[in-house]
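Illustration: Transporter.
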Amino acid sequence: MDLDQGPVRSQWGKQIEFVLTMIGYAVGLGNVWRFPYLCFKNGGGAFLIPYTLSLILLGIPLFALECAFGQYGGKGPLSIWSINPTFKGLGVSMVVASVFVFIYYDVIIAWGLRFLVASFTSDLPWIKCHDCSCLLYDAKNLTEEIVEGLKYNNSIGQNCTDLSLNSTADSPSELYYYKEILHDSGSIQESGDVLWPLLLCNLFAFIVIFLVLLKGIETLGKVVYFTATFPYVLLTILLIRCAMLDGAYDGVLYYLTPKWDRLSDATAWSDAAVQIFFSLSCCMGGLVAMSSYNKFNNNIIRDAFVVPIVNCMTSFYAGFVVFSTLGYMAKIKGVPIEKVTAGGPGLAFIVYPEAIGSMPVSTLWAILFFFMLCILGFSTQFSAAETIMTSIIDEFPKFFNTRKRQTIFRIAVCLMGFILGIPMVTQGGSHLLNLVDEAVLGFPLLLIGLFEYIVIIYLYGFNKFSQDINAMLGRNPFIYFKATWIVISPVLLLAVVVFKAYQMEDFHPGWVGLLYYLIVVFTMMWVPILYFHYSLKHGLWDIMKPKQSWINRRNLSELNKADKTSEVNDKNTLFINEAPGDKDKLSYVNTAFDDDISKPHDLKDAEMGNGNVTGNGSLAKSADDRKDSANEFSRL
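Result:
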């Protein structure tokens, strides 16, 4: 009997390590900047309605599906497809998407590291204006005479001849981000020079990733105790500080006040579904890979509720920090809150640094904030990197059968990510990064999720998958999963794909659009290629069935029971040797875990042998037989 176990894999030292790793993987930079902005954009507190519904009907079901799939299969996203070998390309697409994210996400961490290094100074560099374009920022009661005087007599010591009363003024923090950190060329068409400070920060980030993942989940499981929990400490410290700022209450009120008319806009519902989908890191293979290190009988359904709920509550919690700050910014500028709100990286690298700069002891808050951003980024990046490494190692176990080869491979993966990320640390690199981000986190992941439902729930069958879950947990998934897996979630995913296609706009110039679609095609092309490869080689109908090894994995629960029984009996034997005279206790210990309670005659035989159980005694023999049986079963 083939159980498709392959070589012995590592497992999480404690189950809390898995939960913390999944929380760190799901909770990332998007929780700090994307959710609060979407909440503001789509009706404040009213946005929580579609957001919560999307969590219940789309997020948790897909998260549970991937986690249960990975735990039952016990392999990474490339090797797990004995459930349906024709769709192994789906696993390849997951890993390809993870590689793209792995490359550009590290560049974003490099931005955070660059800001963190710049924060170690008594005067934060983004507070003061050093350019003509920010001279008029926040200036009030300006006249033509005042502006004319500022052209030649100003604080930056430059001749600003283009300055006028109608000039658009940029904030110092915005100029620092675009001109000092990114040296932005203004377009993806102009790549410009490599930015050496960002390149070194990117290299440092990959070195950290390698060191943390040197021994795979053995080291990752220990690091997440810090990376998954410390951001909450920093968020709480920042929230307490921001809540004491003047205008914080107005910001929170703006954040939570519902604008019910926004619920009639389909965009709000689409934004909620997409945010839930992406914030949980679904369809990139990470959930499958991390779950594959679980014990076979771990309560994965419980974990599949805990992690998404914690993730969404983190987004909601971070919103209070962000909007308390925005309320303060609006107060000191004397403008409405919507005038100081920015989405995406701008919220983390422009608006928030500006707010920090105006706080007392600004250096401390800057260091804490950017350290938190870096930790959030690393906690996600660790799992993304391990997903790629695990997938390849699982696919070629005979080659990676030594620690030395695995270590060299992990170095190669990090080096590859660093080299491929060099175009994104040029002067036009941020525009390339945005394009790759939009291309990968768009249609590819949505389509992968849809295909997962087709393969697991429709082709393999909900009833069979329920039996797999029953083998792990001792019970079938309840009615909620039957409704969402069979009907609700696939329909919602299809609706999001159609609506996103409807929203697509043309790219300018044309070659940018070509690059966008090449990334989409390169990510997804492995599904049809490997489908036809296996179909032509093995026959369509025969290969559409799961391998027998997949079905046989249900017996792992019995194997675990046999191992436990053998272990208990070995302990009983040892206990009898130590205390042969306590007959009542011996009878209780020996029969407590026995399937047949009528076996205390083993004890009688033991007592007849001068109160000692030797290697020939029936009890010792029984334990050995059980252990041999379990070992034999594991070799099947």
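Reading the tokens back as a structure: The mean pLDDT is 82.
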